[in-house]
């Protein structure tokens, strides 16, 4: 597929200003499960092309300063069995649990005070070519160990050991590496007078962040006032801890930019275990078409038909601030090859969730319509019918 074949389509999709709507649709009919599908849990997707190198969240997974592991991280305050319209999970996590990233403010308090949080991390560093190396497992990652490896711009260590200070310093001094992944925390090198940068576009305009920043007033399913407080600092360097350690709690996993699992709207899928950990990463990552749909109506079958989305398009993102109607969603499932839909609206959408993955609450303003590579990665929340998701579009 070339970009030119979409040109007539793109010209038809005129942008019009519209106020963000945070309303939540309440009516939905979803087809029930005919046979009894079984969820699949994978570590490798796309015929061996995609490796999931994040851990599934479990109660006994390692968590910072917790001897017994993470503990319970998921609750179901609203469930279909209790008469709710949908299943709606609550999650609570110390942020340094399982697979996670450190911001400069974790170990260096003046960076914390200056606002170097995870939202200031450079997505261009976090996404791109990387080298996976194996280091000896019987020692920490010292300068000597680092020196013995071939180094690249990003580097991942498979070792079950942590960096020593001299190992980390050697890395900063002797390589171009800006991203390090290991099983233990690394030491950040401090600079003078730090000022954090918040961006929506990274890598010289190549990478668009289409996820919303979490704020207390962002839309959240089932809450009129928005998400509310989502972050606490139970241990801080100012209180004598050796690092800053945040605790996050999302009253609903359907807050801001997130993905629905089949178990959100269909209880039989919930019972069968179709949680976010069973979503296909091959569907959530790959070429995608961003279109703009009229902002004065919901996304009906007629609207979908008018977009003339070519066969073969598997991932489609709508910039519209509107929700799908049932007939719009059905039309899509029946008449296109689309398996991933992303919308900037937050709604209880009317999908047969077994067919199509729905990402809601995207931030698609100011992103030109066209073809991109999308990368959408949910958290591996075992048992959760929804998850926060970080989605980016790469030109
Ligand atoms: Zn950490
Ligand atoms: Zn949702």
How would you portray this structure in words?
It contains 9 helices and 18 strands. It is an alpha/beta fold. Among the domains are: 188 residues, Glucose Oxidase, domain 1 (3-Layer(bba) Sandwich); 76 residues, no CATH class. The longest helix has 10 residues. The chain is globular. It binds zinc ion (2 copies). One zinc ion (ZN) binds next to strand 12.
Secondary structure tally: strands: 18
- Determine the CATH topology of the domain at 4-50 and 254-394: Glucose Oxidase, domain 1
CATH architecture of the domain at 4-50 and 254-394: 3-Layer(bba) Sandwich
- CATH C-level class of the domain at 4-50 and 254-394 is Alpha Beta
Task: Give the helix level as a range of percent.
Answer: 10-25%
Please give the order of strands in the largest beta sheet: 12-16-15-14-13-17-18
Strand-residue fraction?
15-25%
Bound molecules: zinc ion
Tell me the major beta sheet: 7 strands, mixed, barrel
Shape: globular
| Oligomeric state of the chains in view | single chain
Gyration radius, in Å: 22 Å
CATH superfamily of the domain at 4-50 and 254-394: Putative cyclase
Order of helices and strands: HEEEEHHEHEHEEEEEEHHEHEHEEEE
**Spans where pLDDT lies below 50 across 5 or more residues:** 1-31, 183-189
What does the average pLDDT come to? 83
N- and C-termini, Cα separation: 15 Å
Structural class: alpha/beta
């Amino acid at each position: 597929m070339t970009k030119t074949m979409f040109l007539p389509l793109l010209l038809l999709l005129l942008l019009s200003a519209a106020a963000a709507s945070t309303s939540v649709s309440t009516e939905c009919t979803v087809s029930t499960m005919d046979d009894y599908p079984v969820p699949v849990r994978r570590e490798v997707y796309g015929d061996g092309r995609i490796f999931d190198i994040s851990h599934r969240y479990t109660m006994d997974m390692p968590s910072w300063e917790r001897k017994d592991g993470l503990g319970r991280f998921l609750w179901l305050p609203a469930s279909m069995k209790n008469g709710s319209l949908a299943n709606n999970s609550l999650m609570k996590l110390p942020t340094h649990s399982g697979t996670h990233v450190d911001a400069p403010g974790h170990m260096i308090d003046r960076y914390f005070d200056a606002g170097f949080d995870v939202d200031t991390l450079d997505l261009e560093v976090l996404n791109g070519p990387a080298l996976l190396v194996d280091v000896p497992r019987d020692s920490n990652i010292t300068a000597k160990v680092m020196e013995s490896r071939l180094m690249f711009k990003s580097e991942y260590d498979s070792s079950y050991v942590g960096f020593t200070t001299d190992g980390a310093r050697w890395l900063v001094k002797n390589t171009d590496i800006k991203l390090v992944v290991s099983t233990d925390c690394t030491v950040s090198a401090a600079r003078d007078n730090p000022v954090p940068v918040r961006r929506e576009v990274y890598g010289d305009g190549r990478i668009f962040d289409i996820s919303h920043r979490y704020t207390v007033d962002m839309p959240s399913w089932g809450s009129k006032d928005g998400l509310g407080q989502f972050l606490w600092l139970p241990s801080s360097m100012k209180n004598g801890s050796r690092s800053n350690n945040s605790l996050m709690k999302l009253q609903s996993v359907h807050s801001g930019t997130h993905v629905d699992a089949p178990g959100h709207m269909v209880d039989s899928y919930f019972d069968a275990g179709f949680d976010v950990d069973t979503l296909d990463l091959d569907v959530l990552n790959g070429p995608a078409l961003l279109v703009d749909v009229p902002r004065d109506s919901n996304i009906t079958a007629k609207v979908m038909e008018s977009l003339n989305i070519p066969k073969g398009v598997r991932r489609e993102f709508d910039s519209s601030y509107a929700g799908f109607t049932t007939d719009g969603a059905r039309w899509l499932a029946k008449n296109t090859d689309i398996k991933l839909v992303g919308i900037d609206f937050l709604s209880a959408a009317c999908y047969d969730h077994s067919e199509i993955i729905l990402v809601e609450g995207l931030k698609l303003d100011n992103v030109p319509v066209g073809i991109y590579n999308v990368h959408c990665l949910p958290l591996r929340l075992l048992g959760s019918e929804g998850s926060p998701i970080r989605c980016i579009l790469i030109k």
